[in-house]
Amino acid sequence: MDNPRRPHISITMKFDTDITIVGGGLNGPILATALARAGITTTVIDALTTKVRKNAAFDGRSYAVALTSQRLLKNIGLWNALSDDAQPMLEIKVTDGRAGEGPSPFFMHFDHAEIEDGPMGYMVQDRHLRRTLLEAMAENPLIEHLEGQTVINQVVEGARVTVTLESGKTLTSRSLIGCDGRSSGTATRAGIKRIGWEYRQTALVCAIEHEKPHRGIAHQFFMPTGPLAILPLTGNRSSIVWSESEANATAFNTLNDEDYLTMLRPRFGDFLGDISLTGTRYSYPLSLSMTEQLVTDCTALVGDAAHGLHPIAGQGLNAGMRDIAALVQIITEAQNRGEDYGSLAVLKRYEEWRRFDNTALALATDTFNRLFSNNTPLLRLGRDLGMGLINKMPSLRRGFMREAAGLSGDLPDLMR
Question: For the whole model, what pTM was predicted?
């Protein structure tokens, strides 16, 4: 059936939608919204329903949004709906130590005032971001959101790709974008293989309330079993991403809330006063996962569908947003030149742009995790001295801050 929302570019070939996006979590709706601003129609296929996605209650889930990712959200018209509920990250403190012993005297301290670009990032709650994305899709006539639907087949025929849904419905489009996570069915059906390994660590995720104000400071505390991130939320609340060994995490997950806090407190310290849990506790196994390709005929992968990272630097969502900004720029430039933006030649430009950055980020997070998640005395001494040295060198320190803010490398236009 012809798409009534926009005339077809091709006279001889008809499409149901310009681009089919598989995945209705975060990356899929952000990509659809960005493409709509270029006049490109999309259909977002979402395995869940709006009722499941939309939750007005605070449940503890939050995301670190780097400065350049915030710019992307602003440039596609989403940030105004989020800004009042976003917590700026004004400083980052990185320390090393062991539970109950306090931090090492050597540390890294990053202050946003040194880079003159604004906060290094923002903490945004999952409930606010998802609500904003769902409302943006519902209000945009160029975006069709198919809820509670899954793809069971995809076939590329020349310059078109057809997906078949479990309901029996079929959709044809110029290209197919997989935003469907680490176990991406889009990648599997396209014959794109994955490489990677398990870390034998589990991330324990929760939110806490605390007596003292956090002053917009994010903390990264490296311990032998894995890093503990304390990330500021609005009010006297913080998001916790606590990486532990599989054995410890399994034991901690069986505890009631008070006993769970008893295990967290010696790792957390008392610098924010007394703490209590708020929202829901989550956990998920940690691994590194990279696809061997980002694209194939009429098909591209974005975010976790292409690369699953360790949360050590909180860059998973931000890497996906860089993918989105780069892919949208490649597609719109090709469209303006009259090229078929679903062709492999065009999509290869996206792969060439993002492959090195994604691989470098994956290797960096992997190296940091292996370097810091151990209790070897010589390594502890070396990394502590290294952090102290970096902290004493303004140019190096600013380089790390710009990296954390997403300001390094070849930025897509939507992130400028």
Answer: 0.92
Identify which of 4, 1, 54 has the alpha carbon closest to the alpha carbon of residue 24: 54
Task: Please list, in sequence order, all residues whose beta carbon lies within 8 angstroms of the beta carbon of residue 187, skipping any fewer than 6 positions away.
Answer: 178, 194, 291, 301, 305, 306
Bridge partner residues of 237 (DSSP)? 209, 233
Q: Cβ atoms within 10 A of the Cβ of 207, count? A: 22
CA distance 347 to 321: 17
The separation between CA 280 and the C-alpha centre of its own chain, rounded to angstroms, equals 20
d(CA 388, CA 322): 31
pLDDT digits 0-9 by tens, 157-185: 999 999 999 999 999 999 999 999 999 99
Residues 347-376 have pLDDT tens digits of 999 999 999 999 988 888 888 788 777 777
CA angle (347, 412, 73) in 5-degree steps: 110
Name the token pair of 156. 């590329």
H or E stretch covering 107: strand 102-111
DSSP letters spanning 136-170: HHHH-TTEEEETT--EEEEEEETTEEEEEETTS-E
